[in-house]
Amino acid sequence: MTNSAIIALAAAIAIAISTLGPAIGQGLTAKAAMESIARQPDAAKDIRSTLIISLALMEALTIYGLLIAFMLIGKI
Amino acid sequence: MGEKSEVIIKLFGILDVTGEVVAMWIILGVLALVSLIVKLNLKERPGKFQNIVETGVEYLDNFFTDILGKKKARKYFTFLASLFVFIIFSNYSGMIPGVGLTDYVKAPTASLSVTAGLGVLTFLFLQISGLRHNVKHYFKRFVMPMFFMLPLLVLDEFIKPASLALRLYGNIFGEEMVTEELYHIFPIGAPVVMMALSVLFCALQAMVFTMLVSIYLEEVTED
Asked: What is this structure's pTM?
C-alpha cells in the first residue's frame, strides 16, 4: 500500500471507531432519560437539560475523532 | 489545524484581518445597531420588535436562572448572554448564501482561532469571577477531596476551555465540511439534508457552550 492509502484508511478508522463508543453511550443515555420522563413527566424539564449536557459531552469525543480524521486527510 | 485563512488587509502593518474578522465586525455592528434601536424606542407597551427582543431576553434569563439561581444569574447575565448571542449569530452567519464562498466573509466559529479566543475568554472569566467571589474557596477547591488531586484539578481548569473551543469548532467546521462533501456528490438537493440539520445544531451548540460555561461558573462560585 502507498503512504496516502494508509493515511486514508487511518482517517476512516479514526472517525469510525470514535463514532461507535459515543453512539452506544448516547443511546443508553437517551433511553434512560426517556424512561425517567415516562415515569415522572413532571421532572421532564430538568431531565431534558441534563440530557442535553451529557449528550454534548459525549458528542465532543466524536468531534475529536472527526478533527483527527480531517487532519489526516489534509496530509494526503 | 484546519486550513489557513487568507489575509485580506494588514491593519497597521501587523494585525491580520481575515474573513472571519470581517464577519465578526458585521455581526457586532448588527447586534449593536439592533440593541441601540430597541433601547431608544423602549416603551411601556411594547411594539412588535420590542416584544421579540423581550421574549429572547426573558428566555435567556430563565435559562441562566435555572442553573445559577436568581442572584448570580442577574450578576453574570451580561457576559453569559452576550456569549450566547454572539455564538448563535456566528453559527447562523455560515448559512447566509455566499458566506464562506469568498475569502472576504466567513463564518467565524468555523475557525479554530475564534473558538480558541472564546475559550481563553471563558477561562479568564471563570478564574477572575472565582477569585472575586471567594479567594479561600477558590484555592480550597483544588485540594477539596484529597490533596493528591491537585495536579488533576489544575489540569482540569485548562482542559475545560480547550474542550469548549474544540467542541464548538469541530461541530461547526464538521457541518460545513459534510455539507460541502454532499454538494460534491450531488449538487442539487443533497446538501439540504445537512443544512436542515445544521439549523438545529447551530442553536444547540450555542446553548451547550453557554450552559457549560454557566455550570463551570456555578462550580467556581459555589458557597
From this structure: 0.85
